[in-house]
Amino acid sequence: MDFSYRNKNFIRIYGLIDRFKAVINPGVLLLIVAIITLVIANSSLNEWYQSLWTLDFFVGFGDFNLLSHHGHPFTSLQLINDGIMTIFFFTVGLEIKREVMVGELSSFRQAILPIIAAVGGMIIPVLLFLITGNIQGFTPEEMKGVAIPMATDIAFSIGVLSLLGKRVPVSLKIFLLTLAIADDIGGILVIALFYSNFSTTAILELALSLVFFGLLLLGNKLRINNKLFYFLNGLIIWYLFLQAGIHPTIAGVLVAFTVPARPYINLKKFTEGMEQDLSVLRSTLKNAPNDNIILSNTQVRYLTRIEAASDHVISPLQDLEDNLRDLVNYIIMPLFAFANAGVIIDISNFALFSGISLSIMIGLIVGKFAGIFLFTFLAIKLRISRQPNGMTWSNLAGVSLLGGIGFTVALFLAGLSYPLGSYVLNDAKLGIVFGSLIAGIAGYFTLKITLKKTKSE
Hints:
It contains 17 helices and four strands. The chain is an all-alpha fold. It folds into two domains: 25-196 and 316-450, Na+/H+ antiporter like domain (Na+/H+ antiporter like fold, Up-down Bundle), CATH 1.20.1530; 267-285 and 294-312, no CATH class.
């Protein structure tokens, strides 16, 4: 029997959403949005496109505006980058916590190889950016983008890998996923340490945010599983971080670490209680007519008990991660891409193979590949870790290339590194888009050639 708790009035809409998700994975969707954005930004619609990101927002009362920084209201672009993207980083935090507790990062032996690979994939691109930047005579302002090519886009890279279907060994998927998560941790640390502006007045705001963070830790300790409790305190921490000069998306990660990973009711207790409640419900059916559409008070009471208990058998961490996944993959990340991938391509002065664009492209394509591959190779040869089953040097090369798909986090770091509307930011985005595209295509075809076909293919 198929139980569906979806509203029947919207069943067609739900069906369309499910079919859309089945046909287009998040990585492909990001690619489509990026291409559409490039076309719009380089057409007669560019003026309209640019005007979308200068709208001011107000959420508050009187003189208080939640969406403001030191009295300046958020523009639509800031709302996306500093506000909505906090949800993306919140889900990254949830994913990291889950992986540390029960996933690939819970075991040192399992985690060490992709972590070493991620470290290599961050160090080498940064070094190549510094080397090429010095050769080209970058100014100190241009050097601020040194961290841009160290990023790996989880959704994009996993999305490209999924296009190869069942021929991809499970160990290879786990390796890339864990590598991308470790890479995200590195990116979060970089944002926190190098892209946050501290001031003397920020100390009080930071101290106050730590009080609310302490409340969340206490709530976790006391097994408070109410998601509204974590949302409201998290919102306050986000606002205080914003005013203190700490990048507010870091608040999303820190709040995620406080969300309880243990359910209020364990599964064994739930099933035992469910059996008792179902036994009572069965007893109420003995004398009830088959076509009875009105439930008795006893039936309503016990069905309500079952519903309430089922809400407590799934931990807030799992529940939030599951519910936010589609929102992040199919709305937030495409929206971010649409707002940030609008690179203007000037054919008369094409800067792709010089300056910032070239350094970022070299970092993403050459640096990520070399860093991931070489550090993994050395870790295995030096017996720090063993080579996973199904991993060969040739398919490792393909995965190392996929690590060069920086896109989302790289665009995010570019926006933090360079002034809005500057030619340097446009050149940085140009390098990110084309570097990610080349790395993705190269990685896909390398894996397509090296991975064995399944019988169904």
